[in-house]
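Two folds, back to back.
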Amino acid sequence: MSRIESLAEYLRAEGRRKLDRVEVRDGGRNARSALALLDAAAYTRSLGDDDPLMAVLVEAGCFGPHGFDDFQPGEQVAGLVRSWESGEPWQLLMAIRFALQGSLT
């Protein structure tokens, strides 16, 4: 599985998890989040492995120590994805990139 596919699969799984989550009076938050994450997963599949985001994810260790494992986000990225409620797919990916770039410096 390529890095892009691995990241897309992670986002898709998080979107599905949100679809399965039932909370009283969430005001549709989980549904909005699920749609945003599923949209981001589809968008991610259109990226190339040479996308600058991939270099940041590799440098941050999100694909293991050598950069060849499945996508494994740290707590910072996982928390960002879990809390993502709406927005364009590229906005989520840029938020991930900026969060990681800030932690690498």
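---
second:
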Amino acid sequence: MDHVSESQGSDKRQRLYPRGIVKEESLPYVIALGFSSGFTALVVLLACVHFYYVVKYITDETVRSDMYWIVFMCPITTVSGLIGMIVPRAAIFLNAVSLAYLMFCLFVMVTLMNNLFGGRHALSEYLTEKQVVIKLSVPPVCCLKCLPTFRPTEANLKRIEWMVFQTPLIRMCLEILNMVVFLELNHRNHWWFQMSNVLGLSSMFLAFYACYVMAPLESDRLAQYRFKTIFRLVDAAQALFSLQKFCFDLLAAIGFFEEGPILPSLGKSQFITSAMLSWEMLLLSILATYYLRPSMNSVFDKYHRQRSGSPSPQSASSPNMPELPPVRPPPSKKQQDSDNLSLPANADSPVAFKKCKIVPYQEDTCV
């Protein structure tokens, strides 16, 4: 009788004081979702500010197009992660979208470097003139001094670009195969998914290595454009996303996360990855806002023309560095053909001069 009366009393208390919408086991998820929503809103707000400055103060259309990809890198990553936290069934597909976008941003860094120089041909001419060679002994294999060096020809530069561009292509193919295997098995506890992660990481490291080979070639020339800072921010975003996702997926595969009433072990790993990326991308956005502001970055050429009375960021940071021309469009085919022309010496001229090579976008300089 006492047991029956006690159960009736508990049922009565439950009717009088019903449990809230947020249950005790779901409270950590709700808190993490709230913080991630706030961080994502701040990232999107900063991206709108960055987009405004890119549209208003960058004249060159090709450079502006490359900057669009970099501006939307953090918001696309955080928004995709937030939607995946709200809709866990779509988290796998949204992570694939974010990863492919981040991998493509690596290729955009290479095209941005070429566009700042005026094209791959102009970059090859500049490196050849400065007698700069392509070195393979860069991090993480900088200790291997026996690796060969290559001339900075257009063909070699194009091969390095394809070493970077292969990673978004391979990542997209792997994610499509992952979705096919998941739909067939209805679970991810299979050796294929671990092999897919290893192949994806290998492709990513190869792209990182190609970027590290390419970045030192023009570090001095593009100092006023803060190219190295942009590269480091993109590199950090790639590493944070890929390494965290690999580590948490591996922990879920070995049974580190328990199956819960709300999310399975794989869902928990994806939820934690998205929650961490929200504040990490906010930190990268804040760093980009400070270090790449128009007053310290010559890529915003229209901003400095409007304030021509103030010293340029390049002259303030390194006064001995020669002033570079503004951002210019890539040379046309006719201008590229004129690179091989030379002017003969004029015997009747009062001032004798040697043969001069015509360099695009520069004054004729005597050899």
